[in-house]
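Why does residue order matter? Because the sequence determines the fold. Keep that principle in mind as you read this record.
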Amino acid sequence: MSDDFDIASLSDYLHLEQGKVTRLVEKGRIPGRRVGGQWRFSPSEIHRWLEEQVGVSDETQLARFETAMEDTPAGYEPMSEAFSIWGMLPPEQMRIPLKGRSKASVIKEMVDLATESGKLWDPDRMERAVRQREDLHPTALDNGIALLHPRRPLPDAIEDTFLCCGKSMSGVPFGGSGLTSLFFLICSTDDRVHLRILARLTRVLNQPHCIDNLLEQNDAYDFRQVLKEQEEKIAGELD
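Structure:
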């Protein structure tokens, strides 16, 4: 979607009433600019703002956000009904352990893993895009996890939406407050798919003891099983 949003289209995209969106914009809560007396919103700025909202939202807010991202407005591909994090992470798209000891080497290793899956057609472009995103704002979180992705989806570089995951045994300096051990590479076809994955993955990882349980796993099948069990805990809210 290359054209800017106006109030009406942004309201439809966010699943919010136009009056509420207008109030949020006028209070400076949503990034926008006036053009000819009308509010206009850059899709890239809205996407970045929504990513930030995911990072500071609680479970209830994340669940609502994910539900909003499920619907498909005009101009977007419908999402698969069989949507799950563990389903997008077959064992062959996991690497335990990662060999990389630096940010650059981990990014390359994760992109190589994506290439080996056969679902990434342009690894050089993906690696550049992920590096640029990390240079702009590191995706490493304080809980030892990094959610790697380009600034914007690269639909013409991938077969379909997919994930890759890697675990470093010793941890890697990746821009967070400490070492980062778990890395997820998100390769999505459009902004809404990316945001839905980001919200769902955050919900799963926020489950009590989920990260500790994942860190204990040294086998891709066991790692995936932990993800599956943790995701099923929120299944009732997802239905």
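The chain has a mean pLDDT of 90.
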